[in-house]
Amino acid sequence: GAVVSQHPSRVICKSGTSVKIECRSLDFQATTMFWYRQFPKQSLMLMATSNEGSKATYEQGVEKDKFLINHASLTLSTLTVTSAHPEDSSFYICSAREWGFDGPYNEQFFGPGTRLTVL
Amino acid sequence: EDKVVQSPLSLVVHEGDTVTLNCSYEVTNFRSLLWYKQEKKAPTFLFMLTSSGIEKKSGRLSSILDKKELFSILNITATQTGDSAVYLCAVNWGERGGADGLTFGKGTHLIIQP
């Protein structure tokens, strides 16, 4: 099946610094990648939808200037948490959808997630 | 506002029991319903359902969708301790050719006791 990787798997940073998380589709081309955040014992919350070559679409309540998303190629999307604060500590998960599927019936493949801790 | 509601939120059963997990939804522009199993890290895909009344099966797991009543169930028979996980239901919404996304339910935390 399709494989999605994330890097790093875990990061600890100081408050005020920026952190970049990479999401890669390893064996397929992903026209669309999604970024989710999951707090402990809660479900995944969609943060933004990223289409290759265009600006990301952010969900209500997600600050686009704080969570910068770049989807520069069909296999790579990055999420940069700028000026991170302790409340940004969370589990960030990306998912990718394969190029070539038409219609509405395609599944998303998830990366393993990145645990961000901001001190 | 789109909603996906799962029940129960938590369930503890003994090994060998059969469990049924529920997912109801209210979304605009429904495309499909997906079930995921989440253990320690990211969710792993179980089923994608698009048509009413057609059961999907994979080993001891099965699922069915009712688009009229807007719900789906996930059944696990002869449960094993390895089935212990959070089971997430998600609905893919969006217009054909347009933007879309997944809305997740809160999950059912299933614990299988030996």
What does this structure look like?
The complex is a heterodimer of chains A (119) and B (114). Chain A is built from no helices and eleven strands. Chain A is mostly beta strands and 119 residues long. In chain A, strands 2, 4, 5, 6, 9, 10 and 11 form a seven-stranded mixed sheet that branches. A four-stranded antiparallel sheet of chain A has the order 1-3-8-7, with no helix packed on it. In chain A, a hairpin with a 5-residue loop joins strand 5 and strand 6. Chain A starts with a strand and ends with a strand. Chain B has 114 residues and is mainly beta. Chain B is built from no helices and eleven strands. In chain B, strands 2, 4, 5, 9, 10 and 11 form a six-stranded mixed sheet that branches. Chain B has a five-stranded antiparallel sheet with strand order 1-3-8-7-6, with no helix packed on it. Chains A and B meet through strand 5 and strand 10 of A and strand 4, strand 5, strand 9 and strand 10 of B.
How would you summarize this macromolecular structure in one to three sentences?
Chain A has 119 residues and is mainly β.
Features:
heterodimer; A: 119 residues; mainly beta; four-stranded antiparallel β-sheet; 11 strands; globular; B: 114 residues; six-stranded mixed β-sheet; five-stranded antiparallel β-sheet; 0% helix
Protein topology:
The complex is a heterodimer of chains A (119) and B (114).
Chain A: E1 4-7, E2 10-13, E3 19-25, E4 30-38, E5 45-51, E6 57-58, E7 67-73, E8 76-81, E9 90-98, E10 109-110, E11 114-118
Parallel strand pairs in A: 2-11
Antiparallel strand pairs in A: 1-3, 3-8, 4-5, 4-9, 5-6, 7-8, 9-10, 9-11
Chain B: E1 3-7, E2 10-14, E3 19-26, E4 30-38, E5 44-49, E6 56-58, E7 61-66, E8 71-76, E9 85-94, E10 100-104, E11 108-113
Parallel strand pairs in B: 2-11
Antiparallel strand pairs in B: 1-3, 3-8, 4-5, 4-9, 6-7, 7-8, 9-10, 9-11
